[in-house]
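Q: How would the structure tokens look for this protein?
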Amino acid sequence: MTFTSLPGILPALPRVSVVTSEVTFITNGLSGTVAAEAAIGVSKGLAVVPEVRALAGGLGGILIRPGVAVRWRW
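A: Here is the predicted structure in token form.
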């Protein structure tokens, strides 16, 4: 470990270095998606829309993504 300092200004501080070996791979492959939505009316112009999506492929697995949205018509 080496110490660096500015003469007469700061005391000696240790130099810290960080080394990582993290690597990220991104692939753009084909995948299929199946989705279902159902609008549930709350009032004349407002509805809650729950949904579920199933994605297959990519990394060789199946991903299920639930969600909810609000639909507003005027």
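The chain has one domain: 3-72.

The beta strands are 3-4, 13-14, 31-37, 40-41, 46-57, 61-72.

Upvote if useful.
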